[in-house]
What does this fold into?
Amino acid sequence: MNNFNFKKGYNGNMDSTYIPQYALGAPTSVQTANQIAEATARLNAGVYGVDLALIDERIFESVPKQHFKEIDRLMKLTGAKASIHGPIVDLAGFTQQGWQEETRKENERKINYYMDMAHELDAQGNTPLNFHINTAVPGENRRKLTEEEYKKLSSEEKKSVNEINYLDGRKGYEITEAIGIVDRDTGQLNQLRREVKQYPGGPQVWTPERRLESLNQTEWDKSKLNVFQLQQQKAEVEDRKLAVEREILPLRYGYEKSVLTEEEKARLVQLEKAAQLWKGHIHELNQHVEMGLREIYNDLKYISKEEKDEIRKEHNIDVDRVIENMGEKYKEDQKRILEFLSTKKARSPEEAERIREGLRVLQDEQYKELQRGLNSLDEIHIIPQKFIPTNELAREKTAETVANVVYESYKKYKDNTPILLLENLSPEGTLGSAQDLINAVEESRTRFTQKLIKEKNLSESEAKNVAEKLIGVTWDVGHINFLRKYGYSEEDILRETKKIAPYVKKVHITDNFGFNDSHLPPGMGNAPIKEEMEIIAKEFKKKRLKFEKGDVLVEAGGFVAQFKENPQLYALEYFDSPLYTYKKEPYWKDIWEKEAPYFTGYGPIFPEQHLGMYGTGFSNLPAELGGPIAQDRSRFAGTPNA
It folds into this structure.
């Protein structure tokens, strides 16, 4: 361990072009809970950064907590550093079926447990714990247009195109193909796609944003129309009831004077039954009207802050105050109704009917008061945003979860709180762009900072420093390469990397061709990995940071599964790492596949069996902790094993 530190400090310990070799880590297998054996295998291969790939929560929960402590001892024994790739759980609470606050809270409790286990992995440090930012829930799907595609667009269509400004003055163009939306009441998901509709006056572009605006307007109008139709129906029923009561009056008078014929008596009975039916129908309609008004009132909570500010500026109306007054008046009316019911007791059917009639009058007044308040807001043309983009809800709820989890962990572990990292995944998923990820991290840090100031009495600057330390980004160079399937170029990928670089604390190195998550070693696909690492390395240098053990993980499990080869060697080749400690020739890329005398060729110097043979002279330990490999004869003396 001391030798490692000496070499690192003296000459860089196999520095590569952009990152030192000791910073290149490797993940464990995702398929087993025996992470001790997996960690040992990585250490035996000379890796100084081991990432426990516990992406399946069932596998994670199959690892005894004592094993995390044992892995911690292995790390300290070898001078290595461990991190955790957390399970695939959606921090915002989304599932393929929709969004629910209960799911978010359940996931928050799970992540609290994962943070506890991350602390077990290094009780004196800050274990990085990584989570994917989304779980394939549709977010914002953009596509880059070619010059030919852009030229073919009509003038109307070009209005819906977003411009991309490059540093050299060139312009690019992109369109939003689709956005995911969520119903904030039910949590149901949907997707709105871009459409070009042919109208008599010419084509019109219905962008996803325009369709969302139309959807919210339609739903708001539908809710109001439903109440209006019920009120209209109620007015018609009241007219019929009034007509019946007018016919009843002379017949009832005649009945009291005993002058009615049998036929007239039968008619009176029939009319009184009809009047009761109409009254009952009116009562039902009142209930439906009230329910409709209450649903409309509920939708008022979805008026955006921006719209409220605009209404205050243009109309001098405080929407929140109007809504609050409506609610208070409704409560007062409800209290009056309950008091009326508690003081009235029916001693006869006639008196019971009078009480019911009085109750109907009070309820009608209550509904009318609520209706007046809603009408006053409707006059200024508000549109509650009941449906919002999934990105918006994902940002808000992810930030809530992250801030809560990190704060709970900070209360327990203070300076040794694990670091929670958000990793980019699919660009078309929620929070899939660099800017979306930045917004989520910023809001998470802000919420966490506010908690520290309020609950722990930290100064604002102290709280911000803690938040910046404990909440950050893992940048996966393979995942951002998926932009290629939407027409984006290497330049666009590097533009995204430059945006996110100030927030990056860890990098995942994996290569592909932009269509599938192939998990190839670096250099075997078309991801601009070196260029991205150069951008991130410059940002590190600007902050006076340096790559530490395991800050850069080579995730090439797909290649290992297909070809049964060690991807770390390909990473050493790709990053121009030297063969020896001193940064000079020979380099891995020049020597590792050559047959030559010992010390100069891959054949003799690094055969696969050496990974399991040397450095394992602890005969009483199990194989996964460095003990002997089961075989017929001794590896050194050649004598038979007992």
